[in-house]
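INFO batch 0412 | record 1 of 1 | parsing
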Amino acid sequence: MRHLRALAFHSLRANLRHRQGLFAAMALLVAIVPVFLGMQDTISKILKSGPLDLVRPHVTDAIGLSGYLVALLCVVFLGVMLGIGPLTQEKAKGALEALLATPVSPWTVWWGKFLGGYLPSVFIGIPSSLGVIWALEAAVIAPSVGRTLLPTEIVAVVVIGVPILGLGIAALVNLLGLILPNPNMAALGMVLVVIAVSNALPPAGIGFSSWAFVSANAGVGIAVLLISLALASRLLTKERIVLSARRI
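INFO prediction complete | emitting tokens
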């Protein structure tokens, strides 16, 4: 446990100082602005299209989509970028080989690396998502209807569903980053999987402001985490990590 805490703290500090991670965080925070402006206009048009009782489901779905998009950008995509960039450099420079020459186990390296990328993405993502939701409520909904329209399910998506999804994705991406010569391809593949899942749920009748949507995201995250654990039990060895690093 002591080694895990030390490695996670070291990875966290390295990720926050890494230029790729800083640029990614800044780019995603800037990308939140068009999400807010676009959804602000959309919600305003929905509210004007009919009585509140009729358009309320569409309004809450739009709010849920706003929070979900920001949470995906900050928790999932930023977590992937924070994990893969420094990991690739460490493999190329031989830092991982030196680390594995110590008593630290491959599992400790894996958990330390992915927690170092996942934790800052959560600390950025949850407040950013809730901030966008609050801003939409204050700027559009409250002035139009005189009160807020914020179902608990929307908050649960941001603080439970997406963080669990991000946990599973971060674990698998960092595992593949340790054992594959080209971790960037693994990261790209996981991002495409997330996009496919998020696009498949609404057509299936699962709205962005429903408990089913919370459960679906959390369920996918847990399934990916279990797959990661199963793969790690078979593939995560010092020899495999060292061989993958020497092919870069």
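INFO post-check: The chain is about 85% helix and 0% strand.
INFO record closed
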